[in-house]
Amino acid sequence: xxxxxxxxxxxxxxxxxxxxxxxxxxxxxxxxxxxxxxxxxxxxxxxxxxxxxxxxxxxxxxxxxxxxxxxxxxxxxxxxxxxxxxxxxxxxxxxxxxxxxxxxxxxxxxxxxxxxxxxxxxxxxxxxxxxxxxxxxxxxxxxxxxxxxxxxxxxxxxxxxxxxxxxxxxxxxxxxxxxxxxxxxxxxxxxxxxxxxxxxxxxxxxxxxxxxxxxxxxxxxxxxxxxxxxxxxxxxxxxxxxxxxxxxxxxxxxxxxxxxxxxxxxxxxxxxxxxxxxxxxxxxxxxxxxxxxxxxxxxxxxxxxxxxxxxxxxxxxxxxxxxxxxxxxxxxxxxxxxxxxxxxxxxxxxxxxxxxxxxxxxx
Length: 363
Prior knowledge:
single chain; alpha+beta; Umud Fragment, subunit A; Alpha-Beta Plaits; seven-stranded antiparallel β-sheet; four-stranded antiparallel β-sheet; 5 helices; 15% helix; disordered N terminus
């Protein structure tokens, strides 16, 4: 009779994975890791429009910190990983909205502050769930509870002149009877220029506008600020009630969680659309400057979340809070951190790369 003594167990022969299985495992791991990093920590974005010039340029690629303001839990779980609202290069939706979860925000390092450059979901894009609306990037001009006003193009917050971004742009008319060569615009880093009768319409900084006046072939450089008596019919919150425009806007207080309103026609004109669109009521509407929720008229209302006021640094070429309203807190994605690549589509080969913008911090 043989006795078995305690000792090392015989090691099982490991089954060798096929090359295909190893590739699949690596792909799954990479997708899971990238999804978690993209959701919790940091996500890459690109700048497609000039609304933030010259602070951010078309063709800038940047990383956005999710941990700054706290990452949001997903609201739309049935989605193809590493996509947004559509499958890459198509108009086919990348998600199913059969399940919509309540959103929560993870612990944050900070809160949104004035002058932060913020990425958020475009609020009035109602065809998509909140977390899959198009990403916008703007500068936070006012936070919840602030009173924002624009007078002759200058922002005021709580009655005091707001801080202007160093490279903020306005629209100017260059008065000249000569054709200006593209090299001149390139010299002054003016990417937006349109020839009109008697000159050119350009977007540039006030400092550059002063330099242009010294050119011998330019008669004058004229600001194109809109007078206060010329309302814009597209202005927020209600052009019929408040005849404002982009250069003369407000004053208007930004709603905050817990803000109480005793509603009248004026307050409904100011805040009615915000309550209807972003406060989470399934059946809310405004009729004749009266607010109705679930069919009942509401005369007192308390806001359920904070809001922010965003503007582009290219003040005359930016669709922002002056036109479509406040940004709800649950639409905030993250804080723009730094540029990791910048490409100029107007240049060719190696000249396309804007080397001096690599790893620039965004402020």
